[in-house]
Specification:
Strand content: under 5%
Largest sheet: none
Radius of gyration: 18 Å
Number of helices: 15
Number of strands: 0
Distance between the termini: 11 Å
């Protein structure tokens, strides 16, 4: 199937947020990175944290961990240079954690529209993905590294990593263990993380295939090399064949507010793998 970048662009520009439109322009039309940063900074608060619905399922304006986590996954998935985008953010994170290294959420989180699962969970409390991605960017502080290491030792085991059955949720272990350099028996945790992603990918329904490429952004990445022969090509074939008539790709839960971002992600994957 021939991919229509024009239809994808029209969908993103018709249904996406301002930052998603600027991101599309940057990735596929030679748009300015400064414009992407300008749009993202509208979600940043003076305290250095992030909110205002940047993570689409949480609309509270006050700074909260899930907004930062989502921003860092955007940076990870699209190789976005950060320049000064995250100035002040590690300091905000240091001031919004508990003694055990878990993260605090503002009391106002549930005063604004939010998805029911976030209401149940009380926001994002796990620091692993956030601190792992800050480590990758060279922005983690020694204090954050230490408190998160203690939290991970108390909450992640080789068995718990292997027990994960949802491909998407592998990001917690992946973002942490694949980026830190100082953790006991780190090689075993990395191997367990990659193996869990492989196991989940083998068993994943096709509608989850787009998630795989957050862990395998290029053919020479560790996860891509570990996957069984043919799985990457099968996933790419599925993505290439499932652009909707209106130009977008579905997310796995068929939530329209996530589909502009998924569309950008799928196009970027197809571009990286020479399918676009």
């Amino acid at each position: 199937m021939t991919i229509s970048v024009r239809k994808a662009r029209d969908y993103v520009f018709g249904s996406g947020t301002l930052f998603e439109r600027s991101l599309f322009s940057y990735l596929f039309e030679g748009g300015a990175l400064a414009r992407v940063h300008q749009c993202l900074l509208a979600y940043k608060n003076p305290d250095g944290g992030w909110g205002h619905g940047l993570e689409h399922d949480l609309k509270a304006p006050d700074s909260h961990p899930a907004a930062l986590e989502y921003l860092l996954t955007l940076i990870r998935d699209h190789d976005l240079p950060v320049d000064g985008l995250l100035d002040g953010t590690p300091a905000w994170l240091e001031h919004n954690r508990c003694d055990d290294g878990s993260l605090k959420n503002p009391q106002t989180l549930a005063d604004y529209p939010l998805a029911p699962w976030w209401a149940e969970w009380g926001g994002q409390k796990a620091p692993d993905s956030i601190v792992g991605n800050l480590t990758r960017l060279g922005l983690v502080t020694p204090s954050l590294a230490e408190s998160t290491r203690r939290w991970v030792q108390a909450n992640h085991t080789l068995d718990s990593i292997a027990a994960n059955e949802w491909l998407f949720m592998a990001y917690h272990a992946f973002d942490y263990f694949m980026n830190v350099q100082d953790f006991p028996d780190l090689d075993s945790y990395r191997l367990a993380t990659v193996q869990n992603i492989v196991d989940c990918a083998i068993n994943a329904p096709e509608k989850q295939y787009y998630t795989l490429f957050s862990f395998a952004p290029a053919p020479d990445s560790p996860v891509a090399r570990a996957l069984p022969d043919g799985l990457i090509e099968r996933a790419l074939d599925y993505l290439q064949a499932t652009q909707r008539e209106d130009g977008c790709w579905n997310d796995e839960h068929n939530m329209p507010h996530w589909q502009p971002g998924v569309t950008i992600g799928v196009l970027h994957t197809l571009q990286r793998y020479g399918r676009l």
